Amino acid sequence: MSLPHLVLITGPEQVLAERALAEAVAAAKQEDAQAEVIRLDGRTYEAGSLIIHTSPSLFGGTKVVVVRGLDEGTDELIEDIVKLVQQGIDGMLIVLHKGGQRGKRALDVLKKAQARVVQAPAIKSERDKSAFVTHEFRSRGRKATPDAVRALLEAVGKDLRELARACEQLVDDTEGLIDEALVGRYHGGKVEATGFRVADAAIAGDTAEALRLLRHALASGLDPVPVVAVLASQLRQIARVASAGRSRSVDLAKDLGMAPWQVDRARAASRGWDGERLGRAIQAVAAADFDVKGGGRDPVYAVERVVLEITRQRQAG
Question: Fewer C-beta neighbours within 10 Å, C or N terminus of the chain?
Answer without folding.
Answer: N
